[in-house]
């Protein structure tokens, strides 16, 4: 199909016949596009953060010379009909006739001229594939050839819309579906082609202003009929769609069901993220996240080439600086230890909830099973099991700086599976070697002795979290883990093949998916390392997405110093020209403060290292 597209307010078209004749005279019009309010104001990008606006201008061909005028006159004419219909629709809902009018000031309405040439294989191609119209209302003029088919709501059959002389075909768009809270529905339709005749049609797409926030109308919702959609910006929706027309991404277009509130019993509202944190509709997979081969330093005969080690150190330094994240392969971890803990975790999370809740953590015992984890006070779509590697782990009794009392954290083990404890303990020992090795390489990359950080990890508060992300019916609304930075020194993460971890790229703030790499570990710089390095390295925001089909498991080893460690920029890395960027803070108090906010649903921000920024 070819089409020519115009957008409306000052541009309006005159009716079909003259236009169709003129097309026939001129032959095909090339694939030109037009926006119709002249200019039409739209957001500069689909990015919700980006508040910039831009203007769309129509492009007019030189031939036929009357095209612009007939289009503009036609638009003006059809607008009257479209707005009249909106008034009647409002009345049909028991609303005032002008209920919708305010949304169409600064409208983003457009007109499209479609030409469907005769097709040699009409069984194989479609003029327009099945879709729903994203806007408010469509007013379509079709010629006598026909080809439009509508999916009947009752049985899903495709019904041909018979061309009726001088009739317009009207259909409800997605916006009316949302405004009416699904009282009226936007229905799928498609266009067939035929082998003999070319076909013309002219849809007029009535669309609101880009700054309209689309949501169910207040008058139509009440306690028995709650809003089925979260509000969304029409301009962002529209520009997102436009963009996916050009980038032929293998991902689904933006759809209103992305904003659909979960049905009762589907997703608890406590899981629903602020719209700013909703997943983007394009997934960018991160080839950019460095993959580092550790084989030069893991050589079994320990005759290692200093040059090769230097290379690894350099790679690690630049990964910590550029990304705060990297993956390692050939890391020397015995993979049977990983397989054992994975298998034990799967068995444990498969237990009935009552069984798991026997070791549910609470304010008194902060370790064990938990299913109400929160990040920034929104619930995470996951279950976790936490354990510490030192038994017991010494910590302050409270976050209160005055309180000098200490307490002990003890692990709590489930009865089933019986091998669970051993699998966890053996895994912890195995990963500790890798984590400490990495801290040594990071020290070297900062020009420090390899053992520079070792002292902080005597009496460590290191923990392991087993994460289980069940499939989520509304993966667009919830996150497995909301955006956060890791508070400790270094995280060593094993993720399965499902994937879902996303990292905020430092250069442009884009969320980048970390592609699962078999037998690799994902390493990231924690806040502690950011402070020690005085911001040479950064702890980077990350989050975990869920999906509607597959469960996902991951195992995070969080290397953390002893509770009595005073974290501050290392003396060797500060100077008069480069003074300390943080004041010292006590790690144990920081840690216990964070733990506490998991229980008390405080409406305040978690403790963060920027609170100590100078
Ligand atoms: Fe359509
Ligand atoms: Fe994390």
TrEMBL record:
All copies of domain Fe2OG dioxygenase, residue ranges: 107-208, 460-561
Domain of life: Eukaryota
Gene3D superfamilies: B-lactam Antibiotic, Isopenicillin N Synthase, Chain
Annotated GO MF terms: L-ascorbic acid binding; metal ion binding
InterPro entries linked to this entry: DIOX_N, IPNS-like_FE2OG_OXY, IPNS-like_sf, Oxoglu/Fe-dep_dioxygenase_dom, Plant_2OG-oxidoreductases
Keywords, in A-Z order: Iron, Metal-binding, Vitamin C
Classification via Pfam families: 2OG-FeII_Oxy, DIOX_N
Family: Belongs to the iron/ascorbate-dependent oxidoreductase family.
Name of the protein in question: Isopenicillin N synthase
Species name: Prunus yedoensis var. nudiflora
């Amino acid at each position: 199909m070819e089409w020519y597209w115009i957008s409306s307010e000052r541009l309006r078209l005159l009716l079909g016949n003259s236009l169709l004749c003129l097309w026939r005279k001129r032959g095909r019009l090339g694939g030109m596009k037009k926006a119709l309010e002249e200019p039409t104001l739209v957001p500069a990008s689909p990015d919700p953060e980006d508040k910039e606006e831009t203007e769309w201008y129509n492009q007019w061909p030189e031939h036929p010379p009357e095209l612009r005028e007939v289009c503009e006159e036609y638009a003006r004419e059809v607008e009257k009909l479209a707005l009249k219909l909106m008034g009647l629709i409002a009345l049909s809902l028991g609303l005032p006739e002008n209920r919708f009018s305010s949304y169409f000031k600064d409208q983003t309405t457009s007109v499209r001229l479609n030409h469907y040439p005769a097709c040699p294989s009409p069984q194989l191609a479609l003029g327009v594939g099945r879709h729903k119209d994203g806007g408010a209302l469509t007013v379509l003029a079709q010629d006598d050839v026909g080809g439009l088919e509508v999916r009947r709501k009752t049985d899903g059959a495709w019904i041909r819309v018979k061309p009726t002389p001088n009739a317009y075909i009207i259909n409800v768009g997605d916006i009316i579906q949302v405004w009416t809270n699904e009282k009226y529905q936007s229905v799928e339709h498609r266009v067939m082609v035929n082998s003999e005749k070319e076909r013309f049609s002219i849809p007029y797409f009535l669309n609101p202003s880009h700054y309209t926030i689309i949501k169910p109308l207040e008058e139509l919702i009440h306690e028995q009929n709650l809003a089925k959609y979260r509000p969304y910006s029409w301009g962002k929706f529209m520009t997102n769609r436009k963009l996916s027309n050009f980038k032929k991404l293998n991902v689904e277009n933006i759809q209103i069901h992305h904003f659909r509130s979960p049905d009762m019993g589907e997703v608890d509202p406590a899981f629903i993220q602020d719209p700013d944190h909703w997943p983007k509709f394009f997934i960018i997979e991160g080839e950019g996240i460095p993959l580092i081969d550790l084989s030069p330093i893991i050589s079994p005969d320990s005759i290692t080439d200093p040059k090769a080690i230097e290379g690894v150190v350099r790679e690690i330094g630049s990964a910590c600086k550029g990304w705060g994240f990297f993956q390692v392969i050939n890391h020397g971890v015995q993979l049977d230890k990983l397989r054992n803990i994975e298998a034990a975790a799967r068995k444990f999370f498969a237990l009935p909830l009552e069984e798991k809740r026997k070791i549910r953590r609470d304010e008194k015992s902060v370790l064990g099973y938990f299913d109400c984890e929160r990040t920034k006070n929104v619930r995470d779509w996951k279950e976790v099991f936490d354990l510490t590697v030192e038994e017991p782990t010494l910590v302050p009794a409270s976050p209160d700086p005055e309180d000098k009392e200490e307490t002990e954290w003890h692990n709590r083990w489930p009865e089933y599976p019986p091998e669970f404890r051993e699998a966890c303990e053996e895994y912890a020992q195995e990963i500790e070697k890798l984590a400490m090795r990495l801290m040594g390489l990071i020290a070297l990359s900062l020009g420090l002795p390899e053992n520079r950080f070792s002292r902080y990890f005597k009496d460590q508060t290191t923990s392991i979290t087993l994460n289980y992300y069940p499939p989520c019916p509304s993966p667009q609304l919830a996150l497995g883990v909301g955006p956060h930075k890791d508070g400790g020194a270094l995280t060593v993460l094993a993720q399965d093949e499902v994937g879902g971890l996303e990292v905020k790229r430092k250069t442009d703030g884009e969320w980048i998916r970390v592609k699962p790499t078999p037998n690799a570990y994902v390493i990231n710089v924690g806040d502690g390392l950011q402070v020690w390095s005085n911001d040479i390295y950064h702890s980077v925001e990350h989050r975990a997405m869920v999906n509607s089909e597959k469960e996902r498991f991951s195992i995070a080893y969080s290397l953390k110093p002893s509770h009595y460690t005073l974290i501050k920029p290392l003396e060797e890395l500060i100077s008069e020209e480069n003074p300390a960027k943080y004041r010292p803070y006590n790690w144990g108090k920081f840690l216990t403060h964070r733990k506490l906010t998991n229980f008390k649903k405080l409406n305040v921000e978690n403790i963060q290292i920027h609170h100590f920024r100078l």
